[in-house]
Amino acid sequence: MRGHVSRWLTSAVVIAVLLAFIPMGYAQQKLKVGFIYVGPIGDYGWTNAHDVARRLVEQQLPVETLYVESVPEGRVEPFIDRLVAQGAKVIFTTSFGFMDGTVAAAQRYPNVIFAHASGFKRARNLATYMADFYQVYYLNGLMAGALTKTNKVGYVGAFPIPEVKRHLDAYALGVRAVNPQATIQVRWLQDWFSPPKAKEATQALIADGVDVFAFTEDSPTVIQESAKKNLLSFAHYSPMYKFAPKQVVSGELVHWETIYLDFLRKVLAGKYSADNLQNVDYWWLLAEKAVEVGAEPGMMINPLFVSRLKAATVKTEDLGTLSVYDLVQKRIAQMSKNPVAFDPFAGPIKDRKGVLRVPAGQTLTVAELTSMEWAASGVVGPWPGEP
Amino acid sequence: MGVVDWILGVLVRGMALGTPLLWGALGEIYAERAGVVNLGVEGMMILGAFFAFAAAQVTGHPGLGLLVAAVIGGMAALLHAFVSVTLRANQFVSGLALSMLGLGLAGLLGRGWEGFPLSNPLPELSILPPLGVLLAVALWALLYHTRWGIILRTVGESPAAADAMGIDVALVRYLAVVFGGMLAGVAGGFLSVAYRPSWTEGMTGGIGWIVVALAIFASWDPLRAIGAALLFGTLFHLSFRLQAWIPPEPLQMMPFAFTILVLAIAARWGARAWQAPAALGLPYLRGER
């Protein structure tokens, strides 16, 4: 009897052990995807947005994700080595400064799939991707132009580089489309993240009479600071509505997961491999739902400002006279089509020095957008590197 | 807007950022007067900032947050005191380590606290700016006009002499460093409950390093620290105010440039009173010279 029990126990243990191994075996077959971040995942900006997307990817696809945060630009290669050693078969490097390190690693690991955010160098196993805001900044600009009472809107910029200049120019074009008298006052931080700098830049703009704010900095500082004086603002990158529910009008939100999900689905389906990424470049905008207008997901415009935007009218060449609210809705609809029916950078556009930058009847190519250095007319303030 | 209004406006902004600079610098001045450099100000400040925010958010009392920040800053400084006074390790290395530890730890603990405004913030220009000035005056009087001040300065100038007088050098240094940490904690707390009432990882943004420079720039004098903090705060604000005419970098560099200038002048022509405590940075071991 005892022998019978022990034999029964033994087989039960063996079965249990085998059962325990099944999920592990399954897990080992999951595609491992690595993410390399330039900042901490708690930055409430760029890196945080990528990490939110990473978690959504892990929920929705049969993949396992790994990540490394706060990786210094220029030192990305050892971290790629580590992820490869841990079994990553797909690696996303999420900062412009990781570009050359990613290119070198892609040559060293020809069987690993790489994708680099915001860069322009590709290889057979290295794709590029970007979710860009310029259309959304234009829409924010339309609203800002209608809401300013002092005819001075402000922009707190991180670095004077093409990406930020493109967004600033799009914002300025939006403001001027509604309010040709308005100026766009600029201050630069020379930092992606610096609450003290963002705060003093906001104060400096307030002192100059600015009453509506937009910005590129990875914290809600500009919103909090301008709200103290009951001045309006547009959120940047993360849901920041709750930092000033009475003053935040709208903003820009990113959905990196749309790109990650699409890319990884194609990898899982075998459509993308380490051999055919030479021409894979995601430049995703409103139409692809990689970006969203609003300061909180699902809330395009703070309801507090809808009546003011409906009361303000604007004359346009293509749509006649209509309210700013309707104009925003129409432009969103036009830009949500693929191909788009409207582009903020449709010519003729002259820069603030009077030089024709976009001829009539033309729009800018992605390459021209990503190398933009000129300042739109209406922009007031320093502009390092102005051609 | 008149010139007077313009200047007043700029000075008010200088005072806003000058406040955490002053509080932090007063603490650093006391620690260094006792002979202990603490380069961990940035770390103590960010820990203070996080715990002040968390305590203020949970209890609804920003004042309580500042108190918690003081305790946390003091505890972080206690670690530095243990390593640099008791273990007599290199003060500079220990302080740098404390800065990195503080930044990392606050970032880790702060996960999940970012992205929310503080529900009940302290007005920026309320209690802490005037209190900082009063504290500076009190600490100045204590340093130069009391027996305690003589003891503190003796420990920083000549610990062997202090030891011979029967003063417990290690105890004085511990007390000075921990007091310094408490003030750094409050300075950090000011950032998260008043200056910008919310929590974000790395939100001190290098202010702790300006504090270290400020203690030197003020030549370790609490009264001079008031003017120095106002000057540094004003320069920082002006780097944005004057951006249309002057690029921001030179103005933001100014605090550090001034500090180097003051160090050079003090070393070359300065009176004794302008120079660093003689035993600054040196661990003390009885019988060793």
**Number of separate domains of chain A:** 2
Question: Which series of helices and strands of chain A comes N to C?
Answer: HEHEHEHEEHEHEHEHEEHEEHEEHEEHE
Oligomer: heterodimer
The order of strands across the largest sheet of chain A is 12-10-9-8-6-7-17
CATH-derived architecture of chain B? Orthogonal Bundle
CATH topology of the largest domain in chain A: Rossmann fold
What global shape of chain A is seen?
A: globular
The CATH homologous superfamily of the largest domain in chain A is called: Response regulator
Evaluate the radius of gyration of chain B: 19 Å
CATH topology of chain B: ABC transporter involved in vitamin B12 uptake, BtuC
Low-confidence stretches of chain B: none
- CATH architectural arrangement of the largest domain in chain A: 3-Layer(aba) Sandwich
Task: Note the gap between the termini of chain B.
Answer: 62 Å
Gross geometry of chain B: globular
The averaged pLDDT of chain B comes out at 91
Considering DSSP H and I runs of 4 or more, what fraction of the residues of chain B is helical? over 70%
Helical/strand content category of chain B: mainly alpha
Give the helices and strands of chain B as they follow along the chain: HHHHHHHHHHH
Strand content of chain B: under 5%
| Main beta-sheet annotation of chain A | 7 strands, mixed
How is this structure best described in words?
The complex is a heterodimer of chains A (387) and B (289). By secondary structure, chain A is α/β, with parallel strands linked by helices. Chain A has two domains: 10-121, 3-Layer(aba) Sandwich (Rossmann fold); 134-253 and 291-380, Rossmann fold. Helices cover 39% and strands 20% of the residues of chain A. Chain A contains twelve helices and 17 strands. Chain A has helices at 2-29, 46-60, 76-85, 99-108, 134-147, 162-178, 195-207, 221-228, 256-268, 306-311, 324-335, 366-369; strands at 31-36, 63-68, 90-93, 113-117, 126-131, 152-157, 183-188, 212-215, 232-237, 248-254, 281-284, 291-293, 313-316, 320-323, 349-350, 356-358, 379-380. In chain A, the strands form four sheets. Chain A has a seven-stranded mixed beta sheet with strand order 12-10-9-8-6-7-17, with helices on both faces. In chain A, α7 runs parallel beside α8. Chain A is globular. Chain A starts with a helix and ends in a 7-residue tail after the last strand. By secondary structure, chain B is mostly helical. Chain B has one domain (3-274): ABC transporter involved in vitamin B12 uptake, BtuC (Orthogonal Bundle). Chain B is 72% helix and 0% strand. Chain B contains eleven helices and no strands. Chain B has helices at 3-33, 41-59, 62-86, 91-109, 128-145, 147-157, 159-164, 169-195, 207-217, 222-241, 248-268. In chain B, α1 packs across α10, α5 packs antiparallel against α10 (222-241) and α9 crosses α10 (222-241). Chain B is globular, with a radius of gyration of 19 Å. The mean pLDDT of chain B is 91. Chains A and B meet through α7 and α8 of A and α1 and α10 of B.
